Automatic annotation (TrEMBL):
It is found in: Cell membrane. GO terms for cellular component: axon; dendrite; neuronal cell body; plasma membrane. This is Gustatory receptor. The keyword Methyltransferase does not apply. Belongs to the insect chemoreceptor superfamily. Gustatory receptor (GR) family. Gustatory receptor which mediates acceptance or avoidance behavior, depending on its substrates. Coiled coil: none annotated. It comes from the Eukaryota. Keywords: Cell membrane, Membrane, Receptor, Transducer, Transmembrane, Transmembrane helix. Its main location: membrane. One of its GO terms (biological process) is chemosensory behavior. Pfam families: 7tm_7 (PF08395).
Amino acid sequence: MFKFYFNKLLSSLKLVYFLALAMTCVMNLKNASATVCSLSECKNPVKTEVLAMFSRSIAIACLLCRITIMYKSKSDFPNYVKKVEDYELYFPVNISQKRHIRFIAIAIISSYIVIILPINVLRIYLIYTNFGKINTMFFYTMMYVHNWSICSTEIHFVVRCVGLYQKFQSINEEMATLRLKTIAGNKFPVVLRKSKRHGHDNTLFIGLETLGGGSPLSMSSNGHQPADHIELLRMKHQFVRGTVVELNDLYGIQLGLSIGLLFIMTLFDIYGEVSVESNVTKTHVLFYGWLLQYSFRFCVIVVTSHVTTTQAHRPKMIITDINNRYADNSTKKELELFLCQLSSRPVEFTICDLFTLNIRLITSAFVAGTTYLILLLQFH
């Protein structure tokens, strides 16, 4: 009963937070141009509208992001969480992995706070000391709240992505153990043939004890223990790959809005630094701090996605090492099926199927940003 009412209260608070955030987004959209004029001279209307696009972009991105989250939180997010919990029920996560992901989550949140909060507080302080306008301070405070709302979505995605990385890593470690046994067995194979009175049972023993001091790796025509192990790993990998697809569907729109917003904010901050001759509320420290923030957020999203997908494709190389002439037919079939699944269904994170989140996106964004910045400076 308590849990039921607690969930109802939590749902109501989320709705209130969404409505309050939506109202402030609409207010910032409406008052953007007037607020820009209150901090600097508005001699050029085109320049004013261009500078106002900065805060409007944040408001639009925040509003669309929260709408998407509210829509998907009804069924998609609970289903994803339940699916991950079911996986961890059958394949429990050890204590060290839990500590590791908890440490990463704390480190990411702390990094976001350290990079974002001080420069935002400094900007509001400069506005207060030089102008003292409550409306202007409220406008920029809400703008930074909207920005942090988008940051919280990025943090959720990165932490969940790291969790999937750990699952892929665990699978790859088990496969790497099999590879080590196979490589050593290929160097020193010992074939024991036993003849039975009513038939022949050919069993191959690779003369290598397991890392834990157990029995040697056995490839038997009856037991097929390596084949069963590989089949289990293949099923685990297939499940985690499906979870990657679901995670990408959950956060695809939000990541697209976030990366697009980071791109726009970088352009407009550089444009504002070049075009505005003097602004007491913007210093070089703030400018470089904002660029550091945008670069950090962009790289965290891209690098985390890239590392996770790289870990997901790593079994391809391991499978080629395990598959050898000493393996029995069942093991070879499982390895071929595993490799076929990896080749036919690539694992990747995309932004609404338009851009793939990998390292190449960083260089592409830099080149595109330089081009658009040159075009934007034509308004100066």
